[in-house]
Specification:
By secondary structure, the protein is an alpha/beta fold. Helix content is about 45%, strand content about 15%.
């Protein structure tokens, strides 16, 4: 699978957020990994790239880096709040005009996912949480030493993080991932903001189907078995899967789907069927000329007007005219909306 085009959208408070869209099927928004860098993950062989590929074979996969991470804008202000991560999520899904979708979220990003699901139940089909903490240090086994270590010796912290947080990956590759994903300053800002992390004010309001994947206590020094069990106990009907596996069943270096992905298959297969917009989108797409379909595919691929002109060997002015015709025929007003339409009509 080729790496998808890297795209950007700006949050209401001015942060540039990088995202990618690929695959086909029902939309799945993958909230950032703790050390997220979607451009790096897509362009090298690593456990995250393989996970992306397995997910993209099943879903229209939307990945993004939140502020301070990966390809998104760095330099978090002292006023950064843990719920600013929800702003990043909302910016991406609104930009893509996602009416209804599922989410996969890990660790501290579980708050943004559950908070969004509680606020907009009509938009969220299901949530999968991966090693979700409770926010209670006595449950999550957090001794509060991470900030002190990262502040005192960043390189030593990176080395320890590579050996404990990326056990499925080559150590040198893992160290490069951490260094390129986040700066010491932004990491410390996030850690300080995470002191207010909790799920206790959210879990009772979640009505969306939820599945939790957790590493067992014996499989990882940073396992979240206890925290995930607590979260599952607080959400009505939540499904919990504890695996004797460092990556909670989602990290793999094999071409075969990992156990966690297969459990996601089971979880989603048990959900009520969703009405699909693909049929109506396909019907609208039939009104497009062959050239307009080509233009729509290139829009969905993330090309600029000049790149489309070069690809189709036509002028930029002609490209702009085709784009206007496409917008009118399918009832959209932006490239983001056109991309969402192409995904629904499976023209990507």
């Amino acid at each position: 699978m080729d790496a998808p085009a890297l795209r950007y959208v700006t949050t209401p408070d001015g942060f540039s957020i990088a995202y990618t869209v690929c695959g086909q099927g029902p939309p799945l928004v993958y909230l950032p990994h703790n050390n997220s860098h979607i451009n790096l993950f897509w362009r090298s062989r690593n456990v995250m790239r393989l996970l992306y590929e397995h997910l993209a074979a099943r879903f229209t996969l939307i990945c993004y880096d939140s502020r301070g991470l990966g390809s998104s804008q760095r330099g978090l202000p002292d006023t950064f709040n843990i719920d600013d991560f929800q702003t990043d999520l909302e910016t991406v899904v609104d930009h893509l005009s996602l009416k209804r979708f599922s989410m996969l979220a890990q660790r501290k990003f579980s708050r943004a996912a559950l908070r969004f699901a509680a606020a907009y139940p009509e938009r969220v089909r299901a949530v999968v949480l991966w090693n979700a903490p409770s926010g209670d240090r006595s449950i999550d086994r957090d001794d509060g030493q991470i900030e002190a270590l990262a502040s005192a010796n960043w390189e030593y912290f990176v080395d320890i993080g590579a050996r404990t947080g990326w056990m499925s990956e080559n150590v040198e590759v893992a160290k490069r991932i951490i260094r390129e994903c986040i700066t010491q300053a932004d990491f410390l800002t996030q850690i300080r903001a995470s002191r207010s992390f909790t799920l206790s004010d959210i879990v009772g309001r979640v009505q969306t189907p939820v599945m939790l994947l957790a590493s067992s206590m014996g499989s990882s020094p940073i396992a979240m078995e206890a925290g995930s069990k607590w979260v599952a106990s607080q959400i009505k009907g939540a499904r919990l899967e504890v695996l004797d596996d460092f990556g909670a069943g989602l990290f793999t270096l094999d071409s075969e789907p990992p156990r966690g992905v297969l459990l996601m298959d089971d979880f989603f297969s048990e959900l009520p069927s969703e009405p699909t917009p693909a049929a109506s989108a396909t019907s609208s797409a039939r009104t497009l000329s062959q050239r307009e379909v080509e233009v729509l595919r290139l829009i969905a691929a993330g090309m600029s007007n000049q790149q489309m002109a070069d690809e189709l060997v036509i002028s930029v002015r002609t490209v702009e005219r085709h784009i206007n015709h496409v917008y009118t025929k399918i009832g959209v007003h932006s490239k983001a909306q056109a991309t969402a339409f192409a995904l629904r009509a499976r023209l990507d």
